[in-house]
Amino acid sequence: MSEALLPGDPSVVGGHRLLARLGAGGMGVVYLGRSGSGALAAVKVVQPELADEPDFRARFRREVEAARRVVSPWAVPVTGAGPDEPTPWLATEFVPGPSLAEEIRRSGPLPAYSVRALGRMLAAALGAVHAAGLVHRDVKPANVLLAVDGPRLIDFGIARSTGLGTHTALTSLTATGLVAGTPGFLSPEQAEARTGQLGPACDVFSLGCLLAYAATGRAPFGEGTAEAMLYRTVHDEPDLAGVADDDLGALLRACLAKDPAARPSPGRIESRLAGDERPGGGWLPEHVVRDIADRSARMLTLPGIDPTVTDRPTALDPVSGNPPSGNPPSGGTASGEAAPGNPASGGTASRGTSRRRLLAFGTGGALLAAAGSGTARWALTRDDAPQPAADRWALGVHADLSGPGKADGRAHEQGVRLAVEQYNARGDKPFALGLRTADDGGAEARAESAAQRLVRDRSVLAVVGPTSDACVDGAVGTYDEALLPMLLVKPGAFRLVGRRYRASLHCRPMVYALGFGLAIQLTRQEKVSYAGLLQDRTTDPVAWEITQGIADAMRKEKARFYPRVVPAGLDDLGPQVADILRAKVDSFVYAGSAEGAVGVARSLADAGFDGPRLGPEELAEPAFVGAEAAEGWLLGTSFVDPERLPAAASFVRAFRRRFDAAPGRYAVEAYDAANLAIDQLVRGVRDGRPPERARLATLLRAAEYRGITKPLSFDRDNGRYEGELCYRHRVENGKLRFLGEVPGGDPSGSDA
């Protein structure tokens, strides 16, 4: 889907008039642009700070050169590039359809005839790639765009020359031991960084993974951490269950051979799939064609011109983050913003002309006519623009404030609000802070727009949240592109750590560490010798990471365990519980949802099982804690009960005075994260100003801060929390009783 341009976006790049945003990531932004001839193009623009890195420029020149050398109807052609310009850019033909990854997530697996056609055309594209002396090395569903006439292979960012001579310099950019590609869709030789074996057969293996994904809706080597997927790629057989076409299944097994020499060539794949046309024509099912048509229509509906607003924005209250009571300023609206696509009431005659349009086309009389009305608004978006003193800088809270997780979201907001209010009450503060909130309702689809609201507000210097792993996935690209620090209190999956985002920080241990802590509790505290592990994929990847941590710790402790995995959405887990109990286990761990845990606990109770029963913090919900069968269960969590933590006594008193209630779950953790951000903002003051977003992101990753709940320090490379604390709660009388931290639960191997 295309999105409106942000105020700081350029209007013209390389002769392309930019019309909308198509996507953003750690390296840059992709825009929808129109060339001077009127043709639409996808214009990739590199982040300015990356453009100053010589190695990155060399990689970008390589991408441009590689893409230009590939000629195929199934590969997106380059239409222009500026690798040596101050801000490097690359333009390719615009394909308005969705990626294969998006379509599979939306509509499910493709029928066999579509998979065969997809394989035939992509094999032809790879043949062209290899004929140009290149290996793509990142063939994955996100890099295949769908069109009615066939797929398009994109993104030659890590393509590598297969020859020597003039192209040898290209290969030197890949350091020895670096895994290039996407775990789950790369070859065993890539997974083990066998650089001497990275030839065309790598792409064939990746094509096999991609076609298996298209046929089944899942990656053939599963999900989870990057390390786990790499291990399975090297050592395990692919999961091809669901590939109904036997001939296609045999071809996929050949593509996924561990030995590169045993894989077929792209030409062989193309010929095996040739002449396999669908009766009546068309390579995709009708519902996918409709999806492509709808997507194309939406993306080609170009955004309108933003209105220019001359009114001074209404100052927000620094504590509540809301407009002050009373009437709005003359000529303004109650929100201080014009309605999208419409002039604000009481505006000037020039409101139909945008700031962006003036910069692109404004010369002579048109610029003079609008100058008086547009300049003030333009100035207010700059970092050095004058703003109301109490509202000049702020912290943001991105949370579920209205959906299923609103209790935790509200606790986040209250914890941050208390920290901001206490800071503003200080007599020695170098500047005042406001508070901004953005509600995603717990929906990943709303997370990006919530993040954009905070990103566009230039007063916001750091954000606490989002409050769920799914919403982090929806928002992280937006925050990372703006280098707006994102402090995560509740989400703990590994996904961000492996993707090397620059502005995210985990203010809690990883989910894997909690699994390790549960196992330490079992083996060292409960003294068990044979644990049953039930992983419910309803909550994957969290459930997988929990059980992986448990399994690794049990192996380290030389303890036995009996594992079972059940597919997502299975209502009755009784048979799996019975199977585990038949193995004569002396303890039981369930990694899944609170709702699933109710049935598991009931099955265990009905069977008379009274050994230790454990679960992760996903079970710490009223649906489970209030169930009669949950009595006595032990939960491993990343959060504390501040009312039972002596170090939090002053926080609890202040919280009760402010909100007339006990602190909710994660409130004190959010309070710690906010105070960490405030501490670094104050330490980084220069000339009375706090550090800007990018500098603050760097300062936070280097910080060491003692919070109420734990010391906070981070891996400077990926923002991972360096501690491994795991806390224990026991279900007693329908409530959680805090028991403190798990002793000796350090996955690094040293005992606490």
Automatic annotation (TrEMBL):
UniProt xrefs under InterPro entries: Kinase-like_dom_sf (IPR011009), Leu-bd (IPR028081), Peripla_BP_I (IPR028082), Prot_kinase_dom (IPR000719), Protein_kinase_ATP_BS (IPR017441), Ser/Thr_kinase_AS (IPR008271)
Biased composition (Low complexity): 320-332
Keywords: ATP-binding, Kinase, Nucleotide-binding, Signal, Transferase
Record's keyword annotation contains Signal: yes
Record SMART domains: S_TKc (SM00220)
Domain Protein kinase: residue ranges: 16-273
Domain of life: Bacteria
Family from the record: Belongs to the leucine-binding protein family.
Stored PANTHER family: MITOGEN-ACTIVATED PROTEIN KINASE KINASE KINASE 20-RELATED, SERINE_THREONINE-PROTEIN KINASE YBDM-RELATED
Stated name of the protein: ABC transporter substrate-binding protein
UniProt-annotated binding residues for ATP: K44
UniProt keyword Kinase, yes or no: yes
Annotated source species: Streptomyces solicavernae
Disordered: annotated segments: 260-285, 303-352
Chain intervals with Basic and acidic residues compositional bias: 269-279
